């Protein structure tokens, strides 16, 4: 439904008004000054403004449509940029906080020189993981802002899972959570960065909602031409009402973790969006106080 204000400025509305005003002016003039051939003048008063203003209206209409299209595109890019800023702050903050914690232990002389050397070696490895993660994230973010199509490739699920495991393991260890993996070598046909984004968010949420000394298991299996990547945790669980909000709600939805960790509120909604673009979906099975199993389903690569 076009607002009344927009209709008033529509080029063809202006044409109609111009023709009507010309006719009305002619009729009023005819009332005071008698024209011998009324109908000839009447049609000319309608035809001349129509012929003059109609081409101008067509040009202006095309111009306004172009402006409106650009406006919609700018709004889309603005929305993506806002989400990407939240994404980067959400995904980067946790591993950087872990690195900062290790640096603080060394600089504040909490540990001796021998232990410091061990920590520095670990720190170097962790920095490599974060750097690799940032490279992938920024490349993926760039593709989103440029509206490039999804890059479907065949890749081994382990190629995406292992870097994410290395990235988030320190966060799990800080809560004394044990992460185990099995059956990781399955070939998926999808956009690898989208898969990594989804997996990273799901695993991060599993850590977030699993209390101290809990467990998380990552597993992949082949079934009916698809690869099922499941993340099973022993966390607080999710109620049916909350699952419905996550899967069907339009608004971002977030709750605090077991140690009051905060989230961006759009992670899982965005995961669902990118899985759809990759011909996949997510399943959530959960029971309060008994843990949650989230399963990422994507097509299997045809070798």
UniProtKB/TrEMBL annotation:
GO BP terms: cellular response to phosphate starvation
Enzyme class: transferase
Keywords: Kinase, Membrane, Phosphoprotein, Transferase, Transmembrane, Transmembrane helix, Two-component regulatory system
Family matches, as InterPro entries: BphY/WalK/GraS-like, HATPase_C_sf, HATPase_dom, His_kinase_dom, HisK_dim/P_dom, HisK_dim/P_sf, Sig_transdc_His_kin-like_C
Pfam families cross-referenced by the UniProt entry: HATPase_c
Catalytic reactions of this protein: ATP + protein L-histidine = ADP + protein N-phospho-L-histidine
One GO MF term: phosphoprotein phosphatase activity
Lipoprotein is among the record's keywords: no
Name recorded for this polypeptide: histidine kinase
Organism listed in the record: Cellulophaga tyrosinoxydans
């Amino acid at each position: 439904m076009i607002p009344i204000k927009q209709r008033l400025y529509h080029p063809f509305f202006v044409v109609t008004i111009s023709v009507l005003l010309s006719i009305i002016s002619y009729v009023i003039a005819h009332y005071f000054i008698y024209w011998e051939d009324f109908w000839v003048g009447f049609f000319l008063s309608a035809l001349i403004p129509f012929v003059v203003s109609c081409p101008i209206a067509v040009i202006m209409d095309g111009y306004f449509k172009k402006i409106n299209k650009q406006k919609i595109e700018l709004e889309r890019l603005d929305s993506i940029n806002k989400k990407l800023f939240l994404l980067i702050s959400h995904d980067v903050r946790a591993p950087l906080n872990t690195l900062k914690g290790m640096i603080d232990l060394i600089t504040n002389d909490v540990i001796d020189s021998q232990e410091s050397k061990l920590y520095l070696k670990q720190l170097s490895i962790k920095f490599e993981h974060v750097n690799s993660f940032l490279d992938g994230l920024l490349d993926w973010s760039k593709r989103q802002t440029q509206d490039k199509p999804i890059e479907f490739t065949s890749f081994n699920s382990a190629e995406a899972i292992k870097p994410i495991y290395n990235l988030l393991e320190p966060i799990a260890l800080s809560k004394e959570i044990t992460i185990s993996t099995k059956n990781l070598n399955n070939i998926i046909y999808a956009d690898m960065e989208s898969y990594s984004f989804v997996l990273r968010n799901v695993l991060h949420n599993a850590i977030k909602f699993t209390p101290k000394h809990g467990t998380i298991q990552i597993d992949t299996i082949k079934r009916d031409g698809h690869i099922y990547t499941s993340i099973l945790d022993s966390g607080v669980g999710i109620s049916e009402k909350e699952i419905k909000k996550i899967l069907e709600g339009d608004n971002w939805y977030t709750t605090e973790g077991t140690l009051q960790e905060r989230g961006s509120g759009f992670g899982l909604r965005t995961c669902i969006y990118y899985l759809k673009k990759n011909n996949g979906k997510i399943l959530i099975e959960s029971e309060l106080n008994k843990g949650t199993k989230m399963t990422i389903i994507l097509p299997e690569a045809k070798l």
